[in-house]
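Researcher: Let's do a round of design. I'm pasting the structure tokens now; please hold your answer until I've finished.
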């Protein structure tokens, strides 16, 4: 299972890279300065790391570049960027020549606590989220917290939802309450660092038990059934959505909806949905659907986790405890 290294020094990363005969770097084009510091003399490829470019076309462009660089089985492909970048690079690495090695340097909070850990790679198909992908473990994920200090506040909120989701699943040492406090603007980056490490470890432990999502790993989908449906709706109704919700913002809405369904079914206390709504709003996250719920039906019924009309849905019992049960999608 992949290694996770957290450091405030890029020298530590260069030490990790030293053992590889050839390193090629794919990076978010907005991060040219950081990619230059990391890659140094290595060949690199900038990509447009936005959701609408998270497609097979971009993956194929990366594969063609790997071919032009004569990448082989001893090559390491290093992804520098957020979740879109790590997904695209990881997917390309997993299929090029039936798989070469890759590693991640996540530069957003969402990628540090979620997207760069666990080996899931994927791209979108006709606006359906992550419909194409593989499970392929990176050699390592190198977390460089200083990269967060230049991020806009909205991008921090994007990652806040995934961090809070992780601690709703497993709340060691009352990390959930600590995260709520630290994530309020302005963010305390020094206090955030141990929480990033804690969230990364929770995800890694879950993935170690269930790499291919046959059981325990399913809990990591908390909030994502409705989140992916919201993202599909936004991209298929662009004129109605001048300001698109980010993935993390959609996850926040999905978690509140999951809490509501959990209360309806008696899995949790009736007060939990309102508590989570207040908590998420306190760190600037949205909690209301951007459209009538019935308009999400086509995406919900195409969800990767569905069989017939039943889906493995993550319900919340309390902060720190969730359960996966079959749930029928009804409209």
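Researcher: That's everything. Go ahead.
Model: Designed sequence:
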């Amino acid at each position: 299972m992949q290694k996770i290294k957290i450091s405030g020094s890029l020298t530590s990363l260069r030490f990790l890279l030293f053992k590889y005969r050839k390193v090629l770097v794919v990076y978010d084009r907005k991060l040219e300065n950081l990619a230059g510091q990391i890659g140094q003399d290595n060949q690199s490829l900038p990509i447009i790391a936005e959701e609408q470019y998270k497609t097979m076309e971009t993956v194929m462009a990366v594969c063609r570049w790997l071919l032009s660089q004569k990448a082989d089985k001893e090559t390491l492909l290093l992804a520098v960027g957020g979740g879109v970048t790590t997904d695209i690079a990881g997917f390309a690495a997993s299929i090029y020549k039936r798989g070469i090695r890759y590693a991640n340097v996540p530069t957003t909070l969402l990628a540090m606590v979620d997207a760069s850990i666990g080996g899931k790679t994927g791209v979108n198909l006709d606006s359906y989220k992550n419909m194409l992908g593989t499970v392929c473990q990176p050699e390592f994920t190198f977390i460089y917290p200083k990269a967060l200090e230049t991020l806009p506040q909205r991008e921090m909120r994007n990652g806040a939802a995934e961090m809070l989701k992780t601690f709703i699943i497993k709340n060691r040492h009352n990390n959930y309450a600590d995260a709520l406090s630290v994530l309020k603007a302005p963010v305390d980056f020094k206090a955030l660092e141990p929480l990033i490490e804690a969230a990364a470890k929770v995800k890694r432990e879950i993935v170690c038990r269930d790499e291919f999502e046959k059981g325990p790993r399913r809990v990591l989908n908390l909030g994502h059934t409705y989140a992916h449906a919201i993202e599909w709706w936004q991209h298929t109704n662009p004129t109605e959505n001048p300001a698109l919700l980010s993935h993390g913002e959609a996850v926040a809405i999905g978690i509140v909806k999951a809490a509501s369904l959990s209360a309806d079914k008696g899995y949790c206390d009736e007060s939990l949905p309102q508590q989570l709504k207040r908590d998420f709003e306190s760190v600037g996250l949205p909690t209301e659907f951007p459209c009538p719920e019935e308009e999400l039906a086509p995406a919900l019924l195409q969800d990767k986790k569905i069989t017939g009309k039943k889906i493995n849905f993550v319900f919340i019992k309390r902060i720190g405890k969730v359960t996966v049960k079959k749930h029928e999608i009804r409209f």
